Amino acid sequence: MPYLRHQDSIVKYQFVVKNGIVRKFLTNAKEDEFSTNFFSAGQSITPALLQSVDFVSFVNLQVISHKAIVLFF
User: Fold this and answer.
1) How many angstroms separate the first and last alpha carbons of the chain?
2) Burial group, residue 28, by CB count within 10 angstroms (0-12, 13-18, 19+)
3) What is the pLDDT of residues 14-51, one digit of tens each?
4) Between 20 and 30 A from 23 (CA), which of 6, 15, 54, 60?
5) Three-state secondary structure of the chain
6) Alpha-carbon distance 42 to 26, whole Å?
7) What pLDDT does 72 receive?
8) Does CATH number 1.10.540.10 belong to domain 3-72?
9) Residues near 37 by Cβ (< 8 Å), separated by ≥ 6?
């Protein structure tokens, strides 16, 4: 499934889910994944300032539904 943001990437956008499901998760040193939240239609994804340090992301955002519309700004 496509990613909206990878851990260690530069944070450029805020996201709002218009349709579909987005998963927010963390990855440890062994590359195990830990889901921390799910977002669905009408929800704003946690603000970028709460997902990054110096605008470098420490979370991953992944679209997990077959069809999704995610607005970004």
Assistant:
1) 22
2) exposed
3) 899 999 999 999 888 898 999 999 999 999 987 776 67
4) 54
5) CCEEECCCCECCCCEEEEECCEEEEEECCCCCEEEEEEECCCCECCCHHHCEECCEECCEEEECCCCCEEEEC
6) 23
7) 87
8) no
9) 23, 24, 46
